[in-house]
Design a protein that fits this description.
Residues 9-116 form the Rv3660c-like CheY-like N-terminal domain. This is Septum site-determining protein Ssd. With 351 residues, the chain is α/β, with parallel strands linked by helices. 39% of the residues lie in helices and 17% in strands. It has helices at 13-26, 36-39, 56-61, 82-89, 101-111, 133-146, 164-167, 177-180, 189-195, 217-230, 244-251, 264-278, 295-302, 316-321, 333-345; strands at 7-9, 31-33, 49-52, 70-75, 93-97, 120-126, 151-155, 198-199, 202-205, 233-237, 255-261, 284-289, 306-309. Strands 8-9-7-10-6-11-12-13 form an eight-stranded mixed β-sheet, with helices on both faces. A five-stranded parallel β-sheet has the order 2-1-3-4-5, with helices on both faces. The two termini are 38 Å apart.
Length: 351
């Protein structure tokens, strides 16, 4: 048995089938003991213990040591003796299936989480089409992962062609948004990470290049909730036309970066987006791109703080067209900007 998995104790095959199905919905693996004596060595080690009512008396007879995170699970009609058994095994509550399935999914998912990380969400959006928001989001995530920050890069633009292409990882095995679009409620980040393409400390949730379904706000909420518990940084690449899922990400963002080319059209385009952004978030900073206007004119026109100036990077387009990730040597403009931003926002020395 694995001490990091929830422990289920039951000899009722029908109940076990239900519990296995619930665990699968939570995206976690469980250990099973069919007898109370078999469970005894693992009683204090498992993050969660689920006791079937069929073996509750036998478990109580072993006099297990007191601990948190014990649940008594039953099926069907009320049993007048169930609460006595709950107290006898030291359970905190009784869950009756199938009514309590959603609660049990959340209990399994929470028990299987790694140590909470309280990840910070950064959203990135282009003030005008072609300003480079997707590339900046990708580079922020890459630099953060190089600094050993557990990072999730989320593609929130269903019409963007897939952010995995910018990474040069479009052939990597793993789930994309269409595979998890129906998820809602509490999701285990460990299970999410196992399902998605992961490269060291960087995990990627991308769109795909087929007929893209809309990303449900509920699915975005579930993913962001899991990532907040399991990551140091979540970077979300937003579409310029905000969807309900994009609005959900904005509502959780510690900061939103809007990339604005320093020209009249760039400023006017960004000014049209800002009122919609302000409906969902308040901390919006401008990143200026090259153009005839001075950065301070751009930021004064938009009435936003300046997060920095991002120069053009030589040969960037050629790298992207060849299907390779943006070059991020320490002295490249993208690497310098990302390292400075992350140093200001997060703990972690450049590597």
């Amino acid at each position: 048995m694995n001490s990091t998995r929830p422990l289920v104790i039951t000899d009722d095959q029908d109940l076990l089938d239900d519990l296995l199905r619930v665990a699968a919905a939570a995206g976690v693996e469980i250990d099973v003991a069919h007898a109370a004596a078999h469970a005894r060595p693992f009683w204090t080690q498992a993050p969660l213990v689920v006791v079937g009512v069929d073996v509750a008396d036998a478990v109580a007879a072993t006099v297990p040591p007191p601990r948190q995170g014990v649940l008594l699970v039953t099926r069907g009609a009320d049993d007048p003796a169930v609460w006595r058994r709950c107290v006898a095994v030291g359970a905190t509550t009784v869950l009756t299936l199938p009514e309590a399935e959603r609660q049990l999914v959340e209990e399994f998912a929470e028990a299987s989480e790694p140590a909470a990380r309280s990840g910070e969400t950064v959203c990135v959006i282009g003030g005008r089409g072609g300003s480079g928001a997707t590339v900046l989001a990708t580079c922020l995530a890459l630099i953060a992962s190089r600094r050993k920050l557990r990072t999730l890069l989320i593609d929130a633009d269903p019409l963007g062609g897939g952010i995995d292409v910018v990474l040069g990882k479009e052939l990597a095995a793993g789930a994309r948004w269409p595979d998890i679009a129906e998820r809602e409620g509490r999701v285990s980040y460990a299970a999410l990470q196992r399902a998605l393409p992961t490269f060291g400390d960087l995990t990627v949730l991308s769109g795909h290049r087929g007929d893209p379904p809309a990303i449900p706000a509920e699915a975005m909420r579930a993913v962001l909730g899991a990532a907040h518990r399991g990551c140091d940084l979540i970077v979300v690449d937003l579409p310029r036309h905000l969807t309900p899922a994009a609005a959900e990400a904005l509502s959780r963002a510690a900061v939103t970066l809007i990339l604005v080319p320093s020209d009249v059209r760039g400023v006017l385009s960004a000014a049209q987006i800002l009122p919609e952004l302000h409906k969902h978030t308040q901390c919006i900073h401008t990143v200026t791109r090259p153009g005839p206007l001075a950065p301070d004119i751009v930021t004064r026109s938009l009435d936003t703080p300046h997060a920095g100036f991002l120069p053009d990077q030589r040969n960037l387009a050629q790298h992207l067209d060849r299907g390779t990730a943006p070059p991020l040597r320490p002295q490249t403009p993208l690497a310098r900007f990302c390292n400075t931003f992350l140093t200001d926002r997060l703990i972690g020395e450049p590597r």
